[in-house]
Design brief:
- There is one protein chain.
- The protein is α/β, with parallel strands linked by helices.
- The protein folds into 3 domains: about 90 residues, Elongation Factor Tu (Ef-tu), domain 3, CATH 2.40.30.10; about 110 residues, Nucleotide-binding domain of ferredoxin-NADP reductase (FNR) module (Rossmann fold); about 80 residues, Ubiquitin-like (UB roll) (Roll), CATH 3.10.20.
- It is about 15% helix and about 30% strand.
- It has a 6-stranded antiparallel sheet, covered by helices on one side. A 5-stranded parallel sheet has the order 9-8-7-10-11, with helices on both faces.
- The longest helix is centred in the middle third of the chain and has 14 residues.
- It is globular and about 60 Å long.
- The termini are close together.
C-alpha cells in the first residue's frame, strides 16, 4: 500500500502540558490540506530518517491546518525526542496524507471515550466532531496529575460536564474503575479507547462481555501477552509467491514477510513494523494468513495481510505484488 505524502510547514509549537507539546502544520502555499475524519493520523518523517505516527487532534472541519500533540518520551525509541528537540516553527517537513484506522461509528446511539495520557489526541478530534453534531457522548480522561493533562481548558470549553478527569498520581490502584464503568452494556453504545498498554489491557478485560464490534482501540504499540501465555501460533517456514512478478521466496521463523520480501528485492512501504499503523497492508490472493495486526477488521482480513507482523498457516501465500 503506497501512502501519498505532502510537504507542510510547521506554523507553531505550543506547550500543552508537562512534557507535551502540540505542533501545527500548514500548507507552505496556503492551500487547503486534504480532508480528514476524527481518529485519523499522519506519518511524520522526522530529521534523521525516522517515521512516526501521530493522531490529528484539531476539528475535522478544519482544512487550513493539522495539529498533532506529542509526549516527550525519554525512554522511547527517539521519535518523540526528535519532535521536541529538532522540529521548530518555520521548518518544512514531509508527512503522509491522513488515514483512519480508528473511526467514529455514526450508527452508535452513544459514544463512550476513554483516554489515557497522550491517548487524548484522537479522542479530542472525536470530541470536536461529536459536539458539533450534537451526539450523545462522554469522555473519561485519565492522567497522573493535572499538570500532565493536555487540553484541559479546551475540553472544558468544548464539552463541559461531558468530560470526566481522573488523576491517579501514578498509582495503578487509584486508577479509573473500568469494571464499574463498563459493567453494563447499553444497546447502541460504542467504546473508543486510546492510551498506554496498561489502560488498553484493562479496558479489553473490563469490556470482554461487550459485543467486540462495539469496542474500538487505537494502539501506540502492540499489547504484551500476559505472562505464561503461549504464542498464538507457531512460526513455521512458508513460501511466498508474488503474483505479478512471479518471484518466490521463503519466509523462515526468524524473519517477517516484510523482511523476506525486501531481501528478495521487493519494495513495500512500511512504518511502525509492529502491526499498529496499517501502512504495509497488502492484498493476498491465495493462502491462509495468520493475522497478527491490531488495525484491520474481519472484513479487511479477507483481502489484506499486514506483512510486517502477520504470517501464514498454509504452505504458500500468494501476494498481489
Amino acid at each position: 500500500m503506497t501512502i501519498p505524502t505532502l510537504q507542510v510547514r510547521v506554523r507553531q509549537v505550543t506547550w500543552e502540558a508537562e512534557d507535551i507539546s502540540s505542533f501545527e502544520f500548514v500548507s507552505p502555499k496556503g492551500d487547503e490540506l486534504p480532508s480528514f475524519s476524527a481518529g485519523s493520523h499522519v506519518d511524520v518523517h522526522l530529521p534523521g530518517g525516522m517515521v512516526r505516527q501521530y493522531s490529528l487532534c484539531n476539528p475535522p472541519t478544519e482544512r487550513h491546518r493539522y495539529v498533532v500533540a506529542v509526549l516527550n518520551e525519554k525512554s522511547g525509541r527517539g521519535g518523540s525526542r526528535s519532535m521536541h528537540q529538532n522540529v521548530r516553527p518555520g521548518d518544512l517537513i514531509t508527512i503522509s496524507a491522513p488515514r483512519n484506522n480508528f473511526p467514529l461509528h455514526p450508527e452508535a446511539g452513544r459514544h463512550l471515550l476513554i483516554a489515557g495520557g497522550i491517548g487524548i489526541t484522537p479522542l479530542l478530534a472525536m470530541v470536536h466532531q461529536l459536539n458539533a453534531i450534537g451526539a450523545n457522548y462522554e469522555l473519561y480522561y485519565c492522567t497522573r496529575t493535572p499538570e500532565k493533562t493536555a487540553f484541559r481548558d479546551a475540553l472544558a470549553r468544548i464539552a463541559g460536564t461531558r468530560v470526566h478527569l481522573h488523576h491517579d498520581g501514578g498509582d495503578p490502584s487509584r486508577g479509573l474503575d473500568l469494571k464499574a464503568l463498563l459493567w453494563t452494556h447499553e444497546m447502541g453504545t460504542h467504546v473508543y479507547c486510546c492510551g498506554p498498554t496498561g489502560l488498553m489491557s484493562a479496558v479489553k478485560t473490563a469490556a470482554a462481555h461487550w459485543p467486540q464490534s462495539n469496542v474500538h482501540y487505537e494502539y501506540f504499540a502492540p499489547l504484551a501477552a500476559p505472562a505464561g501465555t503461549a504464542p498464538a501460533s507457531v512460526d513455521d517456514t512458508f513460501e511466498v509467491r508474488l503474483a505479478k512478478s512471479g518471484k518466490t521466496f521463503t519466509v523462515t521463523p526468524d524473519k517477517s514477510i516484510l523482511q523476506a520480501l525486501r531481501d528478495a528485492g521487493g519494495d513495500q512501504d512500511s512504518s511502525c513494523e509492529s502491526g499498529t499503523c496499517g501502512t504495509c497492508a497488502t492484498v493476498y490472493l491465495e493462502g491462509e494468513p495468520d493475522h497478527r495486526d491490531y488495525v484491520l477488521g474481519d472484513d479487511e482480513h479477507k483481502k489484506f495481510i499486514m506483512v510486517c507482523v502477520s504470517r501464514c498457516k498454509s504452505p504458500v501465500l500468494v501476494l498481489d505484488l
